[in-house]
Design brief:
This protein has about 90 residues and is of the alpha+beta class. It has one helix and seven strands, in the order H-E-E-E-E-E-E-E. Strands 3-2-1-6-7-4-5 form a seven-stranded mixed beta sheet. The longest helix has 22 residues. The protein is globular.
């Protein structure tokens, strides 16, 4: 009986972790466009929201510090808004 509870608990954790990551979409590439309300990575427009975070080297940076051609990794929610964008080589 105890092994059934262990398997059920493990299955619940796997399903919960899978559903959380399934909603988020990853985009890798280079920055192709920047404005105050959107960023493009490889030509795909990603809207910025009030909770969007842009980082470089582990520190928060301004959207206006981004330049076209910078390598970037973006995490997008299921509504198409930016959660986190990690850019490489930002200088402020």
């Amino acid at each position: 009986m105890r092994w059934i509870l262990g398997v059920a608990g493990s299955l619940a954790m796997v399903l919960a972790a899978g559903s959380a990551s399934f909603a988020d979409i990853q985009r890798n590439g280079v920055v192709t466009y920047v404005s105050e309300d959107a960023v493009e990575v490889n030509g795909e427009r990603i809207l910025l929201g009030p909770d969007s975070l842009i980082t470089s080297g582990g520190r928060a940076v301004s959207v206006f510090s981004l330049r076209r051609g910078m390598p970037a990794e973006a995490e997008i929610d299921d509504a198409g808004k930016l959660i986190v964008l990690e850019a490489k080589g930002v200088v402020e």
